[in-house]
Amino acid sequence: MTARTGKFLATVLLGLAVSTSSLAAEPVTPKLTDKLSQLLQKEMRAVQGGMASIHSAMVMGQHESVAENAQQIHDSFILQQELTEQDRKDLMSAVPKGFIKLDKEFHQLAASLAEAGRDQDTKKQHKLFSKMTGNCIQCHSQYVSDRFPGVTSF
To answer: Is the keyword Signal assigned to this protein (predicted)?
Structure first.
């Protein structure tokens, strides 16, 4: 599996966990195969744990931990190891272009956050973490509103 495909899939998973938008799109969850739904939920739990670790590390000045956790989110190891070619095809047919865009943005933000961690730039870390959180909220409100009806965009 390519790194690009892995990143896309991780973003898809993240979108199932957190999001923001004023107009809710049709939820993608019902369109996913059982396997994809389980994989995405697994990935989202990993992203959620990574985001929590990053938050704690940022406020304690643990830049190396910020960098490591953000890099893991960027690299999305779970998806790279578990998706078959058919899974990727099924995923691409189940999610809209806007979802893919949010996924790409999220992983780009994670890469930038990892760099800010390596640079020990707390201000930039905070800014990027906030953008990542907003990306999660947007994805959840637009594409996973069936699972997170209380999430609204801002």
So the answer is: yes
